[in-house]
UniProtKB/TrEMBL annotation:
<dbReference type="InterPro" id="IPR007372">
    <property type="entry name" value="Lipid/polyisoprenoid-bd_YceI"/>
</dbReference>
<feature type="domain" description="Lipid/polyisoprenoid-binding YceI-like">
    <location>
        <begin position="5"/>
        <end position="174"/>
    </location>
</feature>
<dbReference type="Pfam" id="PF04264">
    <property type="entry name" value="YceI"/>
</dbReference>
<dbReference type="InterPro" id="IPR036761">
    <property type="entry name" value="TTHA0802/YceI-like_sf"/>
</dbReference>
<protein>
    <submittedName>
        <fullName>Polyisoprenoid-binding protein</fullName>
    </submittedName>
</protein>
């Protein structure tokens, strides 16, 4: 069976995250510049191989001061580590439309395995005849596992920035 290549549709995709701030509210953000692709055998996604890269300097949270801090050596160190990457190692079907995506996330000079829950939206043709697919992925990582250790203690106890990062990823791909 022939290999099918799927390219990201960035206009209909989002790489989002949430982190606790001051122990009680979430701050959301995303990466604005990224690329992703999938390779499958025909239209069989059980064989899917995912490849993703994002520019760390494209992080945005809606606050320029916070974004600049995140890009600094305290966090992503975007100058020294301009990209984060993900390469899948498996895509396992759990039930109809539900998968577990496992792969290696490289960030800040560290590579670790992560597992994401994926909702597979199936295949559909858009109004222009292009075959598309959509996936929603969620998961959690501990930022300290990748050396993103900066924090500040609060007078009332606890810390300014949570360690757990919740990932919320919406991806749309076009068959190419």
């Amino acid at each position: 069976m022939a290999t099918t290549k799927w390219a990201i549709d960035p206009a209909h995709s989002e790489i989002g995250f949430k982190v606790k701030h001051m122990m009680f509210t979430n701050v959301s953000g995303n990466f604005e510049k990224f690329d992703a692709s999938i390779e499958t055998e025909g239209d069989d996604f059980s064989t899917a191989k995912f490849d993703f890269s994002g520019e760390t300097s494209s992080i945005t949270t809606g606050n320029a001061d916070r974004d600049n801090h995140l890009k600094s050596a305290d966090f992503f160190d975007a100058e020294q580590f301009p990209k984060l990457t993900f390469k899948s190692t498996s895509f396992d079907k759990i039930s109809e439309g539900e998968y577990k995506l496992t792969g290696d996330l490289s960030l800040h000079g560290v590579t670790k395995q992560v597992k994401l829950d994926v909702e597979f939206g199936g295949l559909a043709k858009d109004p222009w005849g292009n075959t598309k697919t959509g996936l929603s992925a969620t998961g959690k990582i501990n930022r300290k596992d990748w050396g993103l250790n900066w924090n500040s203690a609060l007078e009332t106890g606890g810390v300014l920035v949570g360690e757990e990062v919740k990932l919320n990823i919406e991806l749309q791909f076009i068959q190419g």
